[in-house]
């Protein structure tokens, strides 16, 4: 129940505002909830004079006691407060000695005498998980679900004699989702918001602002404590009532029925919509229609003809299995452990021993729960094993499903080997041990929800730029693969569930996809590092982190796409109503570059999908792996088949066919200007499909003498060397005012010498390898041209003497406007610096704008008037003032002139994937 929410809570902290009024508090309660209330009250400056909690269980102190003892707060562990209804004198005396002004009871399971409740100056407050007066009693939250309430919530009330009838201080409400369980409600709302509310309530009391609202008896109810003995489910009722009973008891105490003569507990219920899947009949006591064991779980029929799905079953011996495996013959074949796996098993045995301290020895048959483990211990086990074995995707549910030590080890080893993949999606992974994890990388084309080889059977090597080694072979898509993918996307748009889906449901799937990306962020960042050369820490924060943010941002837009009502001249004597609708375009193609493989995918596909389109995406040939991993996660998120299709391969073949295809209605491209022109031409000639292009850049950065020099040096270097210079908005040319030019260059070179060039997976690395060999060669040639034209090579310009495609950060000065390096983009770690005369604002502006590109620009100055003057006149889609590279998912991104047109990010990006329909009605 409540204590299983610990992971969510670790990210929670209440407001840290300072209040003048503080109280001396006694905390009476237990569990993680009590611990967090205690900790947050102390953070607010209140003095906790005593903690009163339960005795140690099996030698383990309650979390509240652990935290208080660590802080040196007096802790009392009374087994009881009264005997035969009367307070125990020595207990009362010990309590009164602490001198509390208020009792705070965040999760109190003991009966507290009224002379304790009323003793402090301000009395006592207690947390209750219901919207009082509804569901008074200890199982309130269970009954909220059992009764099918549409709202849940909690109450902080002034404690009475244990009947939950005291005056109300504060209440909070939340909606109950159709498949919420007790755990889900606690994790999402009751637990984190309850802690905040308890802290807020104490402060209201301290400030003399706390209300005492008498409870009404209208709508009051009281239901008894739910115990296993009375939790048997009545299957002769409507499906929703059965579902509510099961989820109201999940996980404690567990709703049960009788199957084949033994009690079986049902967990993980959800209502089924649509057709019932095929399955094997299962006779269950008390039902007129047998259940069905399907590949998704156990289907139960209500008396109203509706159905529900049960995910897991637990037998009398504590063994839990997926309901879909009920008829599986015997146990899965045991996995033979390698020597390394045996060593790992012994380390896990020690973890079990540390948790089950009351057990003398952990045998293969030792049952985790029969040995006294509780929900909190499940969380601890999962986290300790994950910490010991980085990269293993272990969930709390896995412990319930493998309760004995032997079963747990078998499950763990299968996960370690990557053998736990869901049956619905068959993936032939390329695996690699790197960065303390086992990478599992899809490498085939992803078409219509399946991974499959290219039609031609061809493949190619994708290379790790750190050392030039082959990561794996990747399918090389053909024109036929493009046609199949477009057909799948068109079918999904025209006839699949995606086109008919409620926008809010579409948003929920995109949120789930973002959650899965976050769950796999270390794996995605590692793949990005080995496939593109991105420094791991940058890949984690930006390549992957911003991708997650982008999907969450656009998921929120799904149900906010609106048209307008337009006033037009009326056609008298009749009248007119004209309104517009925003509609998806249909099948869209997306072609992305190699510098930010996952982030560029997210920038375009999130907006595309949020608008309701389907897509065919071609990743860059040299960096296909995160796109294919993304495809796998999209299936796990529940994105219907055909909505997303990924085709690795050549731009000349796949990209050209996408441009030419008559069934594609929009193409979004990020890449070079020459290729963008070819795409635009092909799109026009084929079917006049809509195009958005984010192309080359030669972004100017103007640094005036009145700048913050420290910041200008730091940001100036970032503007060039961020992501190894493989950055579309990189400052292609710096203009530095004459009076500070030499100092600026000197400080830049000094900082470059401190940069660590090396393995991108090393957390201390500043500068990784260039993306691929051809690009490195092009950069070296670019530097040779700069030297030959007369620019001064101050630093770098060479390949680093080590394996892989590493280039030294480079600085050129004395760059004149006519030179090649002054006009053309390097797309690498090459700083191109030109002086401008002191005070010549208009002159440097003219030079900065003397380019056919207009993607980004920047200015550094402390003069706000100068900053505004320059920013208004710079011809670029983005202007940074006293910063650089500051992009955000809500801010539109795109260029002017030959840097392209159309926007990524922000509402503007959504409009790129929508069409406007005007409807006029005469009445």
TrEMBL record:
NADP(+) binds at residues 592-594, 618-621, 651-656, 671-672, 778, 825-827. Residues 339-416 form the Carrier domain. It catalyses: (6R)-10-formyltetrahydrofolate + NADP(+) + H2O = (6S)-5,6,7,8-tetrahydrofolate + CO2 + NADPH + H(+). (6R)-10-formyltetrahydrofolate binds at residues 110-112, 164. Keywords: NADP, One-carbon metabolism, Oxidoreductase, Phosphopantetheine, Phosphoprotein. The active site is at residues 128, 694, 728. SUPFAM superfamilies: ACP-like (SSF47336), ALDH-like (SSF53720), FMT C-terminal domain-like (SSF50486), Formyltransferase (SSF53328). GO terms for cellular component: cytoplasm. InterPro entries: 10_FTHF_DH (IPR011407), ACP-like_sf (IPR036736), Ald_DH/histidinol_DH (IPR016161), Ald_DH_C (IPR016163), Ald_DH_CS_CYS (IPR016160), Ald_DH_CS_GLU (IPR029510), Ald_DH_N (IPR016162), Aldehyde_DH_dom (IPR015590). Pfam families: Aldedh (PF00171), Formyl_trans_C (PF02911), Formyl_trans_N (PF00551), PP-binding (PF00550). The keyword NADP applies. Its EC number is 1.5.1.6. It is an enzyme of class 1 (oxidoreductase). Gene3D superfamilies: ACP-like, Aldehyde Dehydrogenase, Chain A, domain 1, Aldehyde Dehydrogenase, Chain A, domain 2, Formyl transferase, C-terminal domain, Formyl transferase, N-terminal domain. Belongs to the aldehyde dehydrogenase family. In the N-terminal section; belongs to the GART family. This is 10-formyltetrahydrofolate dehydrogenase. It comes from Seriola dumerili (Greater amberjack).
